C-alpha cells in the first residue's frame, strides 16, 4: 500500500490518500473504509445531455467523485472493492445527493476522509505500507564470507543486511581461517538479531552450500544461550535449514521453491493466530477460569490487567456504529498497554470464522478470575450486551452448548 498524501488534525480527523499496489492491499482498504467515511477517486459515469432541439444523447465521462459511504462490498475473487453512497461534493455532471458506486481496483489512487482515524486504522496503514512489518518469512542465505539477511513478503524480497568478509584458506598450523570464520559468524549473528523481528516473522529459512548453515546454526544456538539473547533462544524452532547454491540474494528463490520449504511455509501468515486460538480452546478445557469470551468478560479481565492473549476479529472494527468501533479499539489499546499479546483475526480465514462464533472476541488470562462469572450469576453484570457481533458473553458449561466448534489444527 502506497501512502500518497496524508493530513490529520489533532483530534484525529482528516484524510489519507492511498494507492493499492498488491492484492492484499484491497483487503486492507476494505477494513479501513467504513460506513460514514468520505471516499474520493476517479470514476466513470454515464451522463445524459439534452440539446436545444430537445433530443437527448448520452456519453461516459471520467470524473473525480466524492461519496459518503453507505455500503461496502469486497469481491475477493476479482479483487475489487465496491463502495456505494451519495455524492457529497459539487460536480458538473453529478448532483449532490445522487447515488453512485465506486469500484476501487489495484493501482487506483483514492482518498479516505474520516471524522476520526483511530489507532487500529493507522496501525493497519503502517503495516500495509511497510514491507518490513508485513513480512512473516525471513531468509538467511550464506556461504563462507558472504551472507544476505532478507525479509520475504508475498510479492517481494527485501535485503535487510549484507555481510561480506575475506576468509583465508585453511593452512596447516594456522588458525587464521578459524578466526575469520568466527568473526564472520559473529557478524551474521548480530545481523539476524538486529534485523529480524521475531514478533512478526514466523519462519526463518537458513540456506547454504555444504555444511555452512549447520555450523552457523550450531554457533547461533550456543552463543544465544551464552549471551542470554531471549529472542533467539525462544525462536530457534522457527529456523529451517535447507540447501542453497550460494550466499547471494537470488538463492532465496531457490529456498522458496523447494517442496519441503513450501510445506513448512503453508499459511505462515495465520500460524500465530491458529496457535493462539488453539491455546484458548486448550485453556478453556484445562482451566476455564482463565479462558473468557465476549466483550463484558474480556473487558472486565483487561481492567484487572489479567489478559495474557487477546483474540479479536477484524469484523468488529467494521461495525456500523462509531461508538461500537471505538469501544473495541479502546479495549485493544488498553490490552497492549498492559502487556497483552493481541491477535487480530481475518474474518475471511477459518480461524476468524471460528472466533466469530464466540462473538468475535476472546482472551486467555494470566491468572484465574472465577469471580467474573460469579458476578454475572449474582446479577451484578448483564451476561448479554446490546447484541450483534461481539455481544455474547457466556462461558463454561453454557459456552459451547449446542454449537459445533472444532479446535484449529
TrEMBL record:
Q: Specify the domain of life of the species encoding this protein.
A: Eukaryota
Primary site of residence: cytoplasm
Biased composition (Acidic residues) is annotated at 372-388
Q: Which cofactor does it need?
A: a divalent metal cation
**By its UniProt entry, which SUPFAM superfamilies does this protein fall under?**
Dom34/Pelota N-terminal domain-like (SSF159065), L30e-like (SSF55315), Translational machinery components (SSF53137)
Q: Where is this region: Disordered?
A: 372-409
Cellular component GO terms, alphabetical: cytoplasm
> What is an example of a GO molecular function annotated in this UniProt entry?
metal ion binding
Is the keyword Plastid in the record? no
* Domain annotation eRF1/Pelota-like N-terminal: ranges: 1-130
Q: Kindly list the places in or outside the cell where this protein is found, as annotated in its UniProt entry.
A: Cytoplasm
From the UniProt record, give one GO term of the biological process aspect: nuclear-transcribed mRNA catabolic process, non-stop decay
Ordered alphabetically, the record's keywords are: Cytoplasm, Metal-binding
Instruction: Give the family this protein belongs to, as stated in its UniProt record.
Output: Belongs to the eukaryotic release factor 1 family. Pelota subfamily.
NCBIfam families in the cross-refs: pelota
Q: What does this protein do?
A: Component of the Pelota-HBS1L complex, a complex that recognizes stalled ribosomes and triggers the No-Go Decay (NGD) pathway. In the Pelota-HBS1L complex, pelo recognizes ribosomes stalled at the 3' end of an mRNA and engages stalled ribosomes by destabilizing mRNA in the mRNA channel.
Q: What is the name attached to this protein's record?
A: Protein pelota homolog
> Which species does this protein come from?
Tribonema minus
Q: What is the lineage of its organism?
A: Eukaryota, Sar, Stramenopiles, Ochrophyta, PX clade
